[in-house]
Specification:
Distance between the termini: 11 Å
Largest sheet: 7 strands, mixed
Structural class: alpha/beta
CATH superfamily of the largest domain: Type I PLP-dependent aspartate aminotransferase-like (Major domain)
Number of strands: 12
Shape: globular
CATH architecture of the largest domain: 3-Layer(aba) Sandwich
Strand order of the largest sheet: 1-9-8-5-4-2-3
CATH topology of the largest domain: Aspartate Aminotransferase, domain 2
CATH class of the largest domain: Alpha Beta
Helix content: 25-40%
Bound molecules: pyridoxal-5'-phosphate
Low-confidence stretches: none
Number of domains: 2
Mean pLDDT: 97
């Protein structure tokens, strides 16, 4: 096969590329009412509607009981852990291959992140829970990496039989399903992000969902300086004692935009899925290369298919040649292994006594060094991500498949 004709590089982006009249109308509504604060507005007795409406539609969309809007996906993780009562002396298992906040928020609540290997799905290997659980382990954070659900059935089984909380980090994967249910319903508590790169965005923003009344009340208190205001008490009667919380409240402006975007998630998913299906159908059974295995292909969001090459030494050439054909093939999230990041190498927190690593004599200790993660090291050096987006067309998808086939022949044929 000769190299396909060059096409213009497709324009990347998910939710932000779908911003339009709907976002404008809802944001303007907040401005015109002069009510950007969620708990009261012009009439001090009447909370404005936007954040409450976002929470209502979000919990209906996910199919859960409670949703709480917060300022970011990182805030959501911190609030979720605080709701579970996780703090100093506790350990939390999380994949080494995960976003910065998956690690730093554990440190922020005073607990110690314990890093786990991924498997070929690029999500948590469920067997890691048995290997890494100690008497101090309180929770497992499960990151659904880039629109693909982790294997929640075995993960939930392994974690719950050990008495651990399961926290799903759905920041990258709103709208993804596993075994017919939305992710975020497979755990004790789950978190989402509306940051700019996400499937639905309000620039910044986050959400927490749970079915547990107690966790909901504690999450609200953590997000609002320990308060539990009437709008929340109308859903769940206050039972928990007040404690010193943080301040992670979403504004009505953020909620307006997130609400307009939430209503577009299924359309964005259907668009991406259709393009991904078109591409992967043509990439089956290629020598030396396979596609990222997906625990439940029917629930896959489909915004980023991954090629996994057998031979790491061929990846750079493969990627360069795809790039020369104007195929976007970078790593969209900026994810790279936690053990290679500066804050892990220093082991520092904002104050020495707050660091969960202060007891270790030699740092980085075992469990925080690249050599302890042979599978993560191997896998993350062998993949090529092929991001898709809201503005990608069928012709773009066909060009991606044509280009992968041509480059495959040249590099691996
Ligand atoms: C897996 C994961 N968790 C948490 C976050 C944090 O979200 P935010 O940027 O909204 O704080 C992100 C953001 O990229 C993420 O990808």
């Amino acid at each position: 096969m000769t190299a396909p004709a060059l096409r213009p590089r497709p324009v990347p982006g998910l939710g932000f590329q779908a911003i339009g009249a709907e976002e404008e109308a809802l944001v303007l509504d907040v401005l015109r009412r002069k009510e950007p604060f969620r708990y009261y507005g012009v009439d001090p007795t009447k909370p404005p509607p936007m954040t409450a409406q976002l929470e209502k539609e979000f919990r209906e969309y996910i199919g859960t009981d409670y949703a709480l809007a917060v300022t970011s996906g990182s805030a959501a993780l911190e609030v979720a852990m605080a709701a579970c009562g996780i703090g100093p002396g506790d350990e939390v298992i999380v994949t080494a291959w995960s976003w910065i906040a998956c690690f730093t928020t554990i440190v922020r609540v005073g607990a110690r992140p314990v890093l786990a290997e991924i498997d070929e799905s690029l999500n948590l290997d469920p067997k890691e829970i048995a290997r890494l659980t100690t008497p101090k382990t309180r929770a497992v954070i499960v990151v659904h990496y880039q629109g693909v659900a982790a294997a929640m059935e075995p993960i939930e089984l392994e974690a719950h039989r050990r008495g651990l909380y399961v926290i799903e980090d759905c920041a990258q994967s709103l709208g993804t399903r596993y075994r017919g249910r939305q992710i975020g319903t497979w755990s004790d508590i789950a978190t989402y992000s509306f940051q700019y790169n996400k499937v639905a965005t309000s620039g910044e923003g986050g959400m927490i969902v749970t079915r547990d009344q107690r966790l909901y009340e504690r999450a609200v208190r953590m997000s609002d300086l320990g308060n539990f205001r009437p709008v929340h008490a109308a859903q769940v009667p206050a039972k928990e004692p007040a404690f010193a919380g943080g301040q992670f409240r979403m504004s009505e402006l953020t909620a307006a935009m997130a609400l307009a975007q939430l209503r577009k998630v299924d359309r964005i998913r259907d668009h991406c899925r259709a393009l991904q299906t078109r591409i992967v159908a043509r990439l089956q059974g290629l020598k030396g290369l396979k596609l990222r295995p997906v625990a439940d292909p029917a629930g896959d969001f489909g915004f980023e298919p991954y090629l996994i090459l057998d031979d790491a030494s061929k990846v750079a050439a493969f990627r360069d040649k795809l790039d020369a054909l104007n195929v976007n093939c970078g790593q969209r999230t900026g994810t790279y292994p936690q053990y290679n990041r500066d804050y892990v190498k220093t082991g520092l927190s904002h104050a020495p006594a707050a660091s969960p690593f202060r007891g270790f004599k030699d740092w980085p200790a075992p469990g925080y060094r690249a050599e302890n993660f042979p599978r993560t090291e191997d896998l993350t050096k062998r993949f090529i991500a092929l991001p898709l987006g809201w503005l990608y067309t069928e012709a773009d998808a066909d060009h991606i498949a044509d280009s992968v086939l041509a480059v495959h022949r040249e590099v691996l044929g």
